[in-house]
Write a structure and sequence with these properties.
By secondary structure, the protein is α/β, with parallel strands linked by helices. Helix content is about 40%, strand content about 15%. Pathway: Pyrimidine metabolism; UMP biosynthesis via de novo pathway; orotate from (S)-dihydroorotate (quinone route): step 1/1.
Length: about 350
């Protein structure tokens, strides 16, 4: 129904406007009696064999919603009705910021892809915390970043603010230093500043009565030497794991209109499928499976998800695939996992 009826209509309009429209519609429908239970009956697959215990947390199924979709923690309860085992909110920054100028979101229909240069647009961590207090049992990841105006030498302070604010309201943290849409952010992926950042957060984490898992989200554009550095950093800082991968700045082998493909920003969707899986496999094999990996990037079918799990991912996340394929994709993946 989604791909045949809804998607063709939605794809006639500006992507960011459609995003806000669908948020409103899901919220409205979820307030109508019976609709939440109807969504759950159609899309959720409840089976104890789908449960996964990863970095000390129990996920009712291994299919999550990636960060960027519910940036401000406005719809996580409602989105969980579509069958997600967990929802990652953010990226959140200490202060609210508008993000980059519009238009900043572009569909590449021929490639089943999206280019975005949103720029961490969000209402700030404090507002999100108020919404997270209304959580109805959804397992939540908190993806944190720095404000655009914060220089890299002060970035650690921004991450600390978000960490402290979210600590009591999320189940795990994700340190985002891999978005291509905040100036100079990716420089924080270099070994020295990244080690300092993660060690600082881990020190704060250890001060807590019940420390939370801290993960690192990395770019797909890292070289093998840089990925080996990531393995060393995970070992040295003792963080819980890695999310592989964020969006790519590569524009190889695209079929869509060159006027669109040349837009600046991070590319997500099918063109990222193979590279994300390669990164997962490299990290898993070279580290001898030393830490959990959440696989994300170009998952548009159950087979795509299975390949990432076979490559070494413990969990997977959807974003662009969810937009192109609809919520049935979550059910398809979980059903396929049960069959396999």
């Amino acid at each position: 129904m989604y791909k045949l009826l809804l998607r063709p209509i939605l794809f006639l309009f500006d992507p960011e406007s459609v995003h806000h429209f669908t948020f409103k519609m899901v919220r409205i429908l979820s307030k109508i009696p019976l609709f939440p239970s109807i969504f759950r009956s159609i899309y959720q697959v409840n089976d104890p064999r789908l449960e996964r215990t990863v970095f000390g947390l129990t996920f009712k199924n291994p299919v999550g919603l990636a960060a960027g979709f519910d940036k401000d923690a406005k719809l996580f309860n409602e989105l969980s009705n579509f069958g997600f085992g967990f929802v990652e909110i953010g990226t959140l920054t200490p202060k609210a910021q508008p993000g980059n100028p519009k238009q900043r979101l572009f569909r590449l229909k021929k490639d089943s892809a999206i280019i975005n240069r949103m720029g961490f647009n969000n209402g700030g961590v404090t507002e999100a915390v108020q919404r997270l207090k209304k959580n109805k049992g959804v397992l939540i990841g908190g993806n944190i970043g720095k404000n655009k105006v914060t220089p890299n030498e002060n970035a650690v302070e921004d991450y600390k603010i978000c960490f402290d604010a979210l600590f009591d309201h999320v189940d795990y943290f994700v340190v985002n230093v891999s978005s291509p849409n905040t100036p100079n952010l990716r420089a924080l992926q270099d070994k020295e500043p990244l080690t300092e950042l993660l060690n600082t957060l881990q020190s704060k984490n250890k001060e807590k009565q019940n420390p939370k898992p801290v993960l690192l989200k990395i770019a797909p554009d890292l070289s093998n030497d840089q990925l080996l550095d990531i393995i060393d950093i995970v070992k040295d800082t003792k963080i819980a794991g890695v999310i592989a991968t964020n969006t790519t700045i590569s524009r190889e082998n695209l079929n869509s209109n060159p006027e669109v493909t040349k837009e600046n920003g991070g590319l997500s969707g099918k063109p990222l499928t193979n590279r994300a899986t390669e990164v997962i496999r490299f990290l898993s094999e070279k580290s001898n499976k030393a830490f959990p990996i959440i696989g994300v990037g170009g998952i548009h079918s159950a087979q795509d998800a299975l390949e990432k799990i076979e490559a070494g991912a413990s969990l997977v996340q959807l974003y662009t695939g969810f937009i192109y394929e609809g919520p049935k994709l979550i059910k398809d993946i979980n059903k396929s996992l049960l069959r396999n």
